[in-house]
Amino acid sequence: MRDGYRIQKHPILPVDGREAIEFYWKGKKLLAREGETIASALFANGIRIFGHHKKDGAPQGIFCANGQCAQCMVIADGLPVKSCMVQVTPGVRVEPVDGDPKLPPVEEVPRFGDIEEIEVECLIIGGGPAGLSAAIELGRLGVRTLIVDDKHRLGGKLVLQTHKFFGSIEACYAGTRGIDIATRLEQELQQYESVACWLNTAAVAVFSDQKVGVVRDGKEYVLIRPDVLLVAAGAREKSLAFKGNTLPGVYGAGAFQTLVNRDLVRPTEKLFIVGGGNVGLIAGYHALQAGIAVVGLAEVMPQCGGYKVHQDKLARFGVPIYTSHTIISANGQDGVESVTIAQVDENFKPIPGTEKSFECDTVLIAVGLDPVDEFYRKAREFGMVAYAAGDAEEIAEASAAMFTGKIRGLEIARELGREVGEIPPDWLRTAEVLKSKPGETGAESLPEKDEGVFPVLHCVQEIPCDPCVSVCPQECIVIEGDDIRKLPRYTGGECTGCARCVAICPGLAITLVDYRKDPDYPTVTIPYEFLEDTIAVGDVVTVLDMEGQVLGNVEVVRVRNVKANDRTILIGVKAPREIAKRIAGIRIQEERVTEPMDHYVERLTDDVIICRCERVTAGEIRHFIREGFTDMNALKFPTRAMMGACGAKTCANLIKRIFREEGIPESEIVENVHRPLFMEVPLKVFCKVEGDSHDKEL
What architecture does CATH give domain 609-698? Predict the structure, then answer.
């Protein structure tokens, strides 16, 4: 096992000693860690190309790492599988997919068995923050509930989130890391006997007889008839069309977080991020924590759409953020070698002459999310009693998903006849607050006093967040009124310098300035969530202001790492009084890492891929639209777009965008007809083939 592709130390995550198991790639013996997926094991061994497409020989790798596409397909012990969803087993022989997979011969007629059917009061699709929160409420009321989730553990995207959450401490564990929230919710759920959980179970279809088909462990098909269905399946990442967009090394930010934060694989040396929402900004921070260089981030809008504290955090760690810029191309032959971006005009068109390229081996696409709501829409079409929660209902933060899941749990219990009563109005209001977008951004306001000790709040944007107010024992930090979206304010009261606010702030946006020992060179306490052995007393570090401007070099005089601070290290630096209050962070990576190349790289091949599964280009789609095609179903015949394994999950929205660019009114576009099955199912599973001797015959 090559250590260069494994994370050996992490400031937040424990690096466990899971047992190494042997598997084979193209006949060569490799090592994996017990419980990890084939995709992660291949990445951990430095393998990023999993095969080549049958149409044009293009190299294939991971994209979503969430089972939503089929770009990571491999052959495992003779059968095609999604490598991001299937765990490594001892001795499994994995081969790349080059062309069409060859199916094993059928030597005898298989025997078909009966499909198991079960009934439950409530079926929950998705064991993430919304599904778990709903199940806890249902369990508390004794409702017979079944959760199905396609991963090997509960928690959804919470298990990828090493940062502390925003929102309200009382409502949704604000100030606690997502990975720990997942554990808390799972432990709370375990006390309710009326709730069962099926892991490694994919929901594949909703049928007109009001049954839901699921596949357990990839081999057992079960029909479930619920009295009420709750869809809490989360979201899938949006794709983006640009030259080189399917090169190995171009993939979603969620896939990156899965590799790094779940499987502790170091998949890249230098990455570039496209998209300035919270997903992209947070992924950049997670990369830095894992020791990965972040070359830059491009956002097409004039301002990043994510929380400004996330943006500022990246900026002061040394990551340049290029607003009003878009990606032109990912460059390379068999994988990403560089990325080219350009500035855009007021119509979001690239401005010639503004191109610049950066060396990198990975491009993360973080341009938004689409709800996984097809189960909900189909259930309503068939007259089922169905609810949606979390991102399946509305894209928002995980804090909102937890609270709306809690509300849905009570609504479902009431639907089932439990004595619940009305949902408290303050619950509904809290849900709306947690789902709200960032509000107004003001100018930084520094305290006027130059004596004693006090916090400096470097957050200037209205977002739902109150941990600093909740933990201050002296009540020195307040939010006016009862709306946690308002900016917190230091009252000027008797701060004791406990630094609890510094340690708990999810945005690392609070520092503590202490003039008591030396008024001319006060001590500034700064939050630090990187490896402790990367900084020591006596070091000279570069400090920056809220937006990443260099203030100077100062000496570290204290490094405090205590359990109560939940893996946030508090660094004390001695700084001249003229800059002390402006200090907001310590630069983590040097400027040389982020410098552009001395020339921009132009990708000459026009390979903007719209349909990843069938390798259909934007030019092909545009040609037929100009020929008069307005029915998305009709486009399938000449191009095979939307006919691949993913079922149009990644390409349908891109095709609609081309229609808009070609001036076709939305009212004239005929929507793509979705398949009855939302996920692929091996025929032997769907038909309930009996007998182990037939395992490889279909």
Answer: Orthogonal Bundle (1.10)
